[in-house]
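Hello Y.,

Per our agreement to keep a running log of every chain we model this quarter, I'm adding this entry. I've kept the format consistent with earlier entries: sequence first, then predicted structure.
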Amino acid sequence: MTQQIALKLAVAEDRHAALQRHPLLAKAATREQQHLVSIYYDTGRLALRRAGILLRLRKQGNSWQQTIKRQDDSDSGLTRRPEWQAPYLNHFDFSHVDDAALRDWLQRDKIVRRIAAMFETNIRRTVWQLNPDPGSRILVKLDRGWIASNGRRDTISELELQLLAGSVDSLYALALELAQVHALPPLLLSKAERGYRLFLDTPPAPVKAGDVPIDAADSPLATFRLIALDCLSHLQLNHHGAVRSDDPEFVHQMRVATRRLRAAMRMFGPVLPASFAEQLVPPMRELMQALGQARDLDVLMAEIVTPVSKALPDEPRLTDLASAITIRLYAARSAIRHTLRQPAYGQLLLTATSLLQRTPFVEAPGGTGEAPSLLEFADRRLRRLLKKILELAAAARPESPPSLHELRIGIKRLRYAIEFFGPMIPGKSGAAVVKRLAGLQEELGQLNDLASAGTLLMVCAGRDPHLREAVTLIGGWHSQRHAALLADIPAKLKRIRGLDLPRLEQEHE
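Predicted structure for the entry above:
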């Protein structure tokens, strides 16, 4: 058995020639070209995929090589996985697998007799071997080709940095140097996963945040690492859709992922190294601004303008205003696609992930540290967030939209914090509090959308009196809902004052 450690990066199809001219690659110790044809296998019910096992045949010259891999660990594009290779002699042979449990599982009749081809890849690979510093050896693999299954086909365009010798830091150092001039964001979906999606004809869909499997026995820093890696994965899993699709939910989920990461950085701020925030906050702020511009126009169109247009379908002023907003919306979407294709986006993700692979986030063997327990830390930080919300609620006034906006932000940060610590909350009490906070956040968010819509609508209308009349129509149509939401503010504030934090436990069933 060998363990493969590799960092996978996405490459735009039109950047291969430019990437191959990079000065670092010109210094390679070796360079070779390969043509690789691979066939991936599973049972009809995808038992191998469900078990996290990959079975592949790859043609090498006139012979075939059998490879078995098991996905053990993956951190935002960095994979560590054991693999077993052997010549393929016209039948699958698992006798060389030195993991007895895995070998026995593969050799069961219900597995070995039901294995069939699922999908195929055909790629042209350029391989360089670099020795970036003493003791480090890295294979750089640039792949271009296609993947096919059930008559469906998709392109492959990716870069893999495989560590042969040295530390993981050397992988990231090389990736960041290449990413200075090329857009190389981490690639989370493997060729195998993409093949399965083709086999199943799974359409691309926005990915929402999931539960983070934190352990109450972990340190606060180790817990932050898990949360941050999850946020980075959430961000990157929506990147392809945001670049290729007009579905606004991809951009929205990228915005949510960035906000969750920023909220986690604030919450864990007392234990984070100062350099962590210094390196990440500025590029994160720029990304959030770009995502926000597109998202604000999407909300303006869907939540503010479209309902009025549907209610007044024969009003030409609304049609003209909607057209003006649509032009700005497409320009904003084009701008965010441009931003997401720039080197800075990949640099942000690579920088964040590389920092999370080092101390103090990854302790050296035998390291302990003097950090407080996660239970104590979480309890203290949640109470602080609740106290802040109560202060904001006391200062909030219906006639002051900024005060209500600040309150909404405070509620959102507490909600994210409770979601992060969900595994430490017994029963359904955490979910109940999150649902209550989400409801308050939604109601205050509607008020904020209405309060900010007027300014954005006037910007879209410009100096055209015809379009400004449409803005007045929209304001009048929404006025009754706005008044009702404002009238309910005292009740909302009362509900906030009655908030209780869920109980945290070190262990629970």
